[in-house]
Amino acid sequence: MNAYITDLNQIESWFFKLAEKQPFFLPIKTEGINYRFEKLNDVRENNEQSFPELLSYKPTLLPPGKNIFPDGEILFSYYKDEQGHYQFTQGSNIESQIISGIRACDLKGIHLMDAVFSDGIKDIHYLQRREKTHIIAFNCMTPCDEHCFCEAAGSLDFQTGADIFITPLVEENKFLLEAQSSIGIELIKTLTASECLNPVELKEQALSSRPAPFGRQFVEPIEQVSKIIHQYDADKVYQQYAERCFSCGTCNLVCPTCYCFETKDEFELGNDLSQGRGTKSRHWDACLNPGFAEVAGGHNFRADPAARQRHRVRRKFDYLPQRFEQTFCTGCGRCGRQCTTDIDIFDIVNDVCSSVSETVAQELDK
Amino acid sequence: MNAPMNQSVGNNPYIPMMAEIQCVEPLTERETLFRVLLPEPLNHRPGQFVMVGLPGIGECAISISSGPDSGRTLEMVIRKAGNVTGVLHQLKKRDFMGIRGPFGSGFDLNDFRLDKGNKDIVIIAGGLGLVPLRSLIIPIMDNKSDYGRVHLIIGSRTPKEALFRQQIQQWKQLPDCRITELVDDVDFQDWDGEVGLVTEPIHKLQLDEKNTQLVLCGPPVMYKFVLMEIKMNFNIPDEKIFVDLERRMRCGLGKCGHCQINHVYCCKDGPVFRYSRLNDLPEALG
Amino acid sequence: MKPKIAFFDFASCEGCQLALLNCEDILLELLELVDLVEFREAISEKSARYDIAFIEGSIHREEDSKRLLDIRSRSQFLVALGACACNGNVQARSNFIAPAENYKLVYGEEARNRVQIDKNYWPLWAHTRVRSVEEIVKVDYQLRGCPMSANEFLHLVKALLSGQIPHFPENAVCVECKRHGNECVFDKGLSCLGPIAYGGCDAICVNNGHVCDACRGLLPYANVEAHNNLMLSKGISKEAIKSRYRMFCSAEKMSQT
Ligand code: SF4
Ligand code: SF4
Ligand code: SF4
Ligand code: SF4
Ligand code: SF4
Ligand code: FES
Beta-carbon neighbour count of residue C138 at 10 Å? Predict the structure, then answer.
């Protein structure tokens, strides 16, 4: 049995202990109304008190998966030796890290990224970092805010991939910790806690005390949503949203399952104006950027903002699910929360579904 | 740049092999044939592509032009179009260029063999489209007796831009090979082929429709018209029509997302697609 | 022979040159590779040709535009350096006000009145319109921003010196802002021009606790109407929005609306 019960004070002091050994991230409140994963040691320097946010925080500005897929990652560096031969070195040094306070939706996001980066030709940069990343996840007892729809997207209670999974129990200030991997078991050794003998029962109790339905729900069940998104072009719906879209890419960059990137090659100018040494790096990109699907001759395969908006929605609900058999929207609500012009993928999806049932109804009338 | 030196670099899919340039042969004003020697054989299939470039400068997707039996030698035609290709055009014999690959699905030669019942092979190439298709034509011509009748329709804008003319002459000598070369415009130059669009000779083809394999590669505008012409004249099943498409590639690994056409990644599932698959990919010919 | 690089000043604060001096170490390395012709030497050496001519500042007087045409004819690449050269910058706000009125605003009523009688008094503002470099000559590359970004400057110089084509990605400031993991200033009760502004600055203003005022100009695909509605929905007055738009992009399409 690898289940334990403890309270928030113990969890906090345990976090500080873990943070002494390796970089340890957890969500911290920003100046405004959001949260951001920060290194615990940096936080402690600036403020002494504890972090009650652990119970209430909503999804962070950037999802935790970005710690495993950092922007600007060096893919390799090179130099030209004296004989004019190119010599390559791997990339950046990868150190181990613990990310704690990951929500179920973001755990699912990381799980999906794992699938993408190990599919086909493996992306060793991601996979090496992933291997050295340990996860302490936190279950949600209430919908985080009005933007989330994790239950509808099927990621509420997602537990796979966490080394330790924490569930707040019905009894106040009591938490159930489940160690789900050998690393989890190792990490939990430094926690002061009592062993839990009836974890299944306690967890069941906690989960059934949650509001139902949990957060926003689609007008159709998720399987049906995927079919509709796949089958109908729904130009009008996408067009309507595209009209107020800036093509700013925010919705892509903050999404836990967006992983598109641009590569950048840089060199230092040598004395003979040659490119003696340099690097290749990758940078987060966004399919909502107008230039994303432009080819060498200048032809743009998605020049229209409505086509780009549809591409994003289909990637989450149609294209990637076809390839990996899972919905690629975790319902974390980030895109809607952070879009300055209030475009929410949940609304788009619902509108597409409703517009389709209207059309079908009209056809039946005829 | 403070990268550790001791880690193994073998499995980093972003690090290119450095190939030595053996020959640089300008074909037209903008297109140059590069023959390079790789540190190890590529073992590619016809229709596959490689990412070509220089460290520090960048890469772009370039079709493989040599046949699959070319061993460590690799031939590519590079058009000067942007920064990377511009820099590659400045390279000389014995310089190095970076190669990653081969990537993409490419063609399976078994789909074309006579012993698989394929009586006719039609290959239609517009402009640079001949470059990737050459990797398919070479193995067919080299083992001509294994294949049925071959019909090549090759279009260029002007005689100056016509590629591989000498080699095409040699192919013409082979049994059961009908080759039509066309230009849109003679532009006051010598030209011994025909004048017109690649769509024009299509209706004259003599085909065993049920046992024909048809391959198509050219600029994006070409596909729609050629396919229309084929559909009007022949009853070739969509699974037996292949199109070779262009997209912007960055990683070649099915990760970066730039080459995505609906739910498929061109660099992984393409760039060669059966036409029957395109029904499901409305963005493909957009 | 080393490539010749020259800098020419027009109406500007010289902030861009200052920004350049701030990246001294890289600049020193670069200086070994090129022959730097300074602005004052440049005018004495009338027949000289330049490999790269950097133009700093906006163009106000007729004689300035003549000088600019002359520089263009002698340069292989001509680069507009900074917001003043690229789109007129704050100076171009004066395009919306009659020159005499402008003069009054800047120098006071008394000076304005003196202008009417004293022919030799009105040196700088004797123009009808502030123009960007592009309005007068062909510009090969633009280094946007107020001040321009030293990184982009280095990228451009390295590319041109090694026979390459410099490339500047076209995206909104938001892209870079998100890459930095910033909290959107709209979530702090402020407003921002980032969604419609040319990026490339690495969202430096938001990174440092400010908002974006689109000093690099508007994206060609800027959805100004949606942005206007967004600003209105935040309770910002029409006048305030207009003045915000005009702050840096005066010479550009939006502010002419
Ligand atoms: S979206 Fe769901 S799982 Fe994610 S934080 Fe909100 S409530 Fe929790
Ligand atoms: S965040 Fe909003 S405005 Fe920006 S690209 Fe996405 S949908 Fe459009
Ligand atoms: S599409 Fe939006 S709600 Fe869905 S996972 Fe991405 S950011 Fe979250
Ligand atoms: S602060 Fe400005 S630039 Fe940054 S995301 Fe918000 S609107 Fe965009
Ligand atoms: S954030 Fe905006 S104002 Fe600041 S440098 Fe960038 S474009 Fe200019
Ligand atoms: S080129 Fe990157 S996914 Fe195809």
Answer: 8
Residue A131, SS3 per DSSP: helix
Asked whether the predicted pLDDT for residue A289 surpasses 60, the reply is yes
End-to-end Cα, chain B, rounded Å: 41
| Chain A interface test: which of C27, C154, C165, C174 (most A C-beta within 10 Å) | C174
- Please, what CATH class does the domain formed by B9-103 belong to? mainly beta
Name the amino acid, one letter, at A365.
D
- pLDDT in the model for residue C122: 54
pLDDT in tens, A348-357: 999 999 998 7
Q: Of A85-94, B241-250, C119-128, C171-180, which gets the smallest average pLDDT?
A: C119-128
Q: Which fold has domain B109-285?
A: Rossmann fold (3.40.50)
Polymer length in residues for chain A: 366
CA of A165 to the centre of ligand 1 (A): 14
What structural domains does chain C harbor?
A: 4-88+130-161 (3.40.50.700), 99-124 (no CATH), 173-254 (no CATH)
Could you tell me if C58 and C9 are in contact, meaning their C-beta atoms sit under 8 angstroms apart?
A: no
Calculate the dihedral angle through the C-alpha atoms of A267, A269, A274, A279, rounding to the nearest 10 degrees. Answer: -10
pTM for the model: 0.89
Provide the token pair at A214: 């949990």
CA of A240 to the centre of ligand 1 (A): 28
- Asked if residues B129 and B244 have their Cβ atoms less than 8 Å apart, the reply is yes
Distance CA C89, CA B210 (A): 68
Q: Tokens for A37?
A: 């994963």
Q: What are phi and psi of A24, to 5 degrees?
A: -130, 120
Tokens of C215: 């000093």
Is the pLDDT score of A288 beyond 70? yes
User: Who lines ligand 5 at CB under 6 A?
Assistant: C 145, 173, 197, 201, 203-206, 212-216
Q: Are A286 and A315 in contact (CB under 8 A)?
A: no
DSSP C81-120: EHHHHHH-TGGGGGGGS-HHHHHHHHH-HHHHHHHHH-TT
pLDDT score at C1: 74
Q: How many CB pairs under 8 A join A and B?
A: 143
Structural domain including A11 reads 3-365
